Structures are given as structure tokens and as C-alpha cells.
Amino acid sequence: MQTSITNTPTRYGWATILLHWLIGILFIGQFALGFIMVRLTSQRTAFELIQLHKSLGFLLLGLITLRIAWRIGNATPPLPASVGALERRTAPLAHLALYAFQIALPLSGWALASVSTLEIPTMPFNLFVMPNLPLAESDAAESFWAAAHWYLAYVGIALVALHVAAALRHHFVLRDSVLTRMITPSSGGE
């Protein structure tokens, strides 16, 4: 049976699944990379990891934008009938919060790089120079955006942890199809 790129009324297609897992892995990897890079004693290694972190941040920003566009253009399979009314109301809000933080986090990092008085160009994967956002450079602005980026990262990782816990609850406690349909693509004939 051939799998479908698009979603069906009961399952996700492979494009949604691929974007979901790629973004999830990159987001968690970015958190770990960010945590490590600011604690290194070697300035050279820290600088290289910061440049990688910025590159991956721009990649994530592009992927999450694509994911949101894909979700708008594709039907989302409804939750199983066994899911209660409260969860039916809160699940879309949780997904909206995840999307908002996945957009806000790289944007806050871009703002941080843009206002830095060090004026180090951002070159995603050494391919091109990413223009700065039209924000004024200052130490105060850099402090603000560094704090915003830090807080957004921790709230974002908490949302991801909640998302993972909910998926595991569906799979192991409720024993419904919520997690498996994000692992196994739909078939074209479904």
C-alpha cells in the first residue's frame, strides 16, 4: 500500500510526520546546544557553536513556517472519539502555543543577533549573510533580547515536555491512535 504525502481524514501524511519529527528533534537539539554553548570555557568553540545555533535557528524558523502553511492547507485528522471535551478544547490551544513559541524563539534570537554591539554577521551555514532586523543596537537591547530568548527557550521546552507527556499518555494509558498516526503515514487509499 502506497503512503500519502497529504493527510487523510484519519491519519497524517508523510510530509506532516516528517516536518513534525524534524522540527521536534531540531528544537530539542537547539535547546541542548544553547545550554552547552554558553557554558564553554573555550571562546573559539563557543563562537563556532553559537554560529551553528544561529544557523539551525534560521532553519527551524523556515521549517516551522512551512509546517504552519502545510497545516493550514491540509485537513487535520480529528481526535479519537474517546478523547474528552476538555482535552478537545485544550489540544488546539496547546498546539497553537507550540507554534507561537517555535516562531517567537528564533525571532528573538535573530533580534538578539541584530541588536548586538559586537556586529558579528550572521551567516546561516556559511552560505550568505542574513540581514539584521531593523532594530537599534545597544547593550540594553541586547540584554533585553538575551533574556527574552532565554525565557522563551525554557517555556518552549516545557511546552514540548507537556506535548511529549500527552502523546505518551495517549499511547500507554488511553491506548488510542493519537501517537501512532504521527508515526505511521496515511495510505493514499485511506
From TrEMBL:
The keyword Membrane belongs to this UniProt entry's keyword annotation: yes
Pfam families the UniProt entry points to: Ni_hydr_CYTB
Reported cofactor(s): heme b
Keyword Transit peptide: no
InterPro entries on file: Cyt_b561_bac/Ni-Hgenase, Cytochrome_b561_oxidase, Di-haem_cyt_TM
Signal peptide (UniProt feature, chain positions): none
Name used for this protein in its record: Cytochrome b
Similarity comment: Belongs to the cytochrome b561 family.
Keywords, sorted A to Z: Cell membrane, Electron transport, Heme, Iron, Membrane, Metal-binding, Transmembrane, Transmembrane helix, Transport
Source taxonomy: Bacteria, Pseudomonadati, Pseudomonadota, Alphaproteobacteria, Hyphomicrobiales
Gene3D superfamilies attached to this UniProt entry: Transmembrane di-heme cytochromes, Chain C
Localization, UniProt: Cell membrane
TM region positions: 12-38, 50-70, 91-113, 148-168
Residue span, Cytochrome b561 bacterial/Ni-hydrogenase domain: 11-184
Main location: membrane
Membrane topology: Multi-pass membrane protein
Protein source organism: Mesorhizobium huakuii
